[in-house]
Write a structure and sequence with these properties.
about 450 residues, 2 domains, globular, single chain, mainly alpha
Length: about 450
């Protein structure tokens, strides 16, 4: 009788996939706008120090908050599976656990801010004037750390519930408010760098508050007060394992990208500038692919919760198809419009020429990397994070071998080839592990 009372699972359709993906793509498209406005506003002060300070401070805090990026991915996978299994109590408990982690992590960052910032400036030194201004900027912004980290968990929970329009609302609210307050505090009130920091502080806390309101369903019915469930040892250990594997996987991915930047800097300022410009193409690819990868997280996760291998396969194939099609469109767009985009981003003739030399790698990147992006979403939805960690380790080894072999032979071409090889290796190795994921869905 209980089985008869269960709701019929939602069909996996293209409309359902796009309903999740499109708002995420639009949301991602707003991210660079905020950075441009922050830079443009402080640029009106007529002094290079505020520009450098805001840029450096934002990079440092983003890197620190990035550590907690596992909270979004882990929350999506676990919540979507609980949603698929119609375990309402666990769906609510997962949000509370994520929020508790966010608050604890944010408070820890506030307490440890002095040694953290000192270490950051030791790793990335700047002029005394820029460091002093950046320090003041970060000491204001760090007080919104609990809210900023909580947004990871809130957005992950909403994506798992396929409420990506709510995620878009949070992003639009935060960015719109931040931009408006930037203009008011800096250009009207003359608060300078501190005004930019206060604007972001307010935007992050109000963004978290809006996220809580949009997740209000979790607080209906009283499950959020069930301490025995929220602090269930077995479920906490499982959640910790999932999140730890994601953190390790992400750290290895970061090693690849950071080393790519450092390796490219060894070939001179022109090559480094060209690499930086072409990386913007990669960021565009990531923003577009994320929408369909997030769809895969939600759809595959719910299918996994239903213990339905057939639905897992349908979700993987359909979202993967959209991801591959997106990669093909981006590759074609970069082939046709790439030179014009390069010309918009720089006026230096030597940098334009160098960027055109390596543009072909950005044409192939969406095609080669699409499988890696989409399998990330599929494996996150299934919470196969140990496989993600292990396959990333193998891809990192492949990247290291490619760097050692290709750079001495091909110079900066070798740097780009090694990066594409890491993409291909991730997609290949996770593809080889996919059959096991599908088999285990029935267990």
């Amino acid at each position: 009788m209980m089985a008869d009372l269960k709701a019929t699972p939602k069909p996996i359709t293209h409309r359902r996939i796009l309903k999740v993906a499109v708002p995420i793509v639009i949301s991602n498209a707003t991210v660079p706008i905020l950075g441009a406005v922050d830079t443009g506003v402080v640029g009106q002060l007529g002094d290079p120090v505020p520009i450098g300070a805001v840029g450096l401070g934002a990079i440092v805090l983003t890197a620190i908050y990035w550590i907690f990026g596992f909270l979004r991915m882990g929350t999506v996978g676990l919540t979507s599976q609980a949603e698929g299994a119609e375990d309402r109590a666990e769906v609510c408990a997962l949000l509370i656990r994520a929020l508790l982690i966010a608050v604890a992590g944010g408070v820890l960052l506030i307490i440890a801010q002095l040694p953290l910032f000192a270490a950051a400036f030791w790793l990335a030194p700047a002029s005394p004037e820029v460091e002093s201004a950046a320090w003041g900027y970060m000491q204001i912004r760090v007080w919104s750390a609990p809210g900023a980290i909580a947004i990871y968990g809130l957005t992950g929970w909403l994506i798992a519930k396929e409420q990506s329009r709510a995620v878009l609302m949070i992003q639009l609210w935060m960015n719109g408010l931040n931009i408006g307050l930037d203009l008011l505090f800096v250009l009207v009130l003359g608060w300078g760098i501190e005004g930019v920091a206060i604007a972001t502080f307010i935007a992050e806390w109000t963004g978290a508050a809006l996220g809580l309101y949009l997740c209000r369903d979790a607080f209906e019915g009283g499950h959020w007060r069930n301490r025995a469930l929220i602090f269930n040892p077995a479920r906490l250990i499982h959640m910790a394992g999932v999140n730890t594997n994601i953190l390790l996987r992400s750290a290895m991915l970061q090693v690849i990208f950071v080393s790519f930047l450092f390796l490219g800097s060894g070939f001179g300022d022109v090559q480094l500038a060209a690499n930086q410009i072409l990386l913007q193409f990669l960021y565009i690819t990531s923003y577009a692919m994320d929408g369909f990868a997030f769809s895969a997280e939600a759809v595959v996760g719910q299918a996994y919760g239903l213990k339905s291998p057939a639905r897992v396969r349908r979700g993987a194939v359909m979202t993967g198809g959209w991801g591959m099609a997106t990669g093909a469109v981006l590759a074609f767009a970069f082939l046709l419009a790439g030179p014009s985009i390069i010309d918009v981003m720089t006026t230096a003739p030597e940098v334009r020429e160098a960027a055109r030399t390596y543009l072909a790698y950005m044409v192939f990147a969406p095609l080669i990397g699409a499988a890696a992006w989409m399998f990330d979403g599929i494996f996150i939805g299934a919470t196969r994070t140990r496989d993600m960690r292990n396959m990333m380790a193998l891809a990192l080894i492949c990247y290291g071998v490619a760097v050692a072999v290709l750079i001495p032979l091909l110079g900066n071409h070798g740097v780009w080839l090694a990066l594409l090889i890491s993409f291909a290796a991730r997609g290949l190795f996770m593809g080889l592990r996919y059959p096991a994921l599908e088999r285990d869905a029935a267990l």
